[in-house]
Design brief:
Helices cover 40% and strands 15% of the residues. The chain is an alpha/beta fold. The chain has a five-stranded mixed beta sheet with strand order 3-2-1-4-5.
Length: 235
């Protein structure tokens, strides 16, 4: 199961007028980070960075002036995110901005069924507690020392760690989750995909190898320690 934990930075808060200026994402496979990252800075055509937004992410108009337009990275972005479940904190904000950028190019929107929002997950798990990314990092003792300001890639990396903890921590990453946790995850996926559980592996011994093993154990007499571990039909 491929997932991308992602974040965006924008020129402001109005998705109809403001523009995406940074996209970052980290890839998970079966809830385990693969080490693969995605990152784009984008020049906002005809829009300047709002001073209040600059105070949050520190991305200036001067820094963005030689960056590509969204139309120049959209194919790379679409190929990278294609087929993955997308995870974001307060996902509605990021998805509205990305879908507005896609709509300007006449491209289809990101379906809501492909998106998991970690904000309501955190609020369900810790009712009445702060649910910001900073607060969750503090709760799970995740190191934020490299985070000076908000940034799409660094926030994605932090959120990936938070997300893994929210779905059960490292134990979940090793697929040792309970049936209840797996059912909760299926609900968070919006029902677009049934929860997957590990299946038993087929036996690796052939019938001939099994018979040879039984003959070897029989040749050692009744005192053979391995006899107690043979199947009941061993004779």
């Amino acid at each position: 199961m491929r997932e991308i934990v992602f974040d965006t930075e924008t020129t402001g808060l109005d998705f109809e007028e403001d523009r995406v200026i940074e996209i970052g994402g980290v890839e998970l496979w079966n809830h385990i980070p693969t080490g693969k990252e995605y990152h784009w800075f984008v020049r906002p055509a005809g829009r300047r960075v709002d001073p209040a937004a600059f105070d949050i992410h520190g991305i200036s108009d001067d820094f963005l002036k030689d960056k590509p337009l969204f139309s120049e990275v959209v194919e790379e972005f679409a190929a990278a995110f294609d087929g993955a479940t997308l995870i974001a904190h307060n996902a509605a904000f990021d998805i509205r901005f990305l879908n507005a950028e896609l709509a300007r190019l006449g491209r289809p929107a990101i379906p809501p069924g492909l998106v998991i929002d970690t904000l309501p997950m955190a609020r369900r798990k810790f009712p009445m507690a702060p649910a910001t990314l900073d607060a969750l990092c503090s709760r799970f003792q995740i190191d934020t020392s490299k985070r000076d300001k908000h940034g799409a890639l660094v926030d994605s990396a932090l959120l990936a760690q938070v997300y893994i903890e929210l779905i059960g921590g490292r134990q979940s990453a090793l697929r040792l989750v309970s049936a209840g946790e797996e059912d909760d995850r299926a609900a968070d996926l919006g029902g677009h995909r049934a929860a997957r559980r590990p299946q038993a592996l087929p036996p690796r011994l052939t019938a001939e190898e099994d018979a040879a093993h039984r003959r070897f154990v029989d040749s050692m007499g009744d005192a053979a320690l391995w006899r107690a571990h043979l199947p009941a039909d061993a004779g």
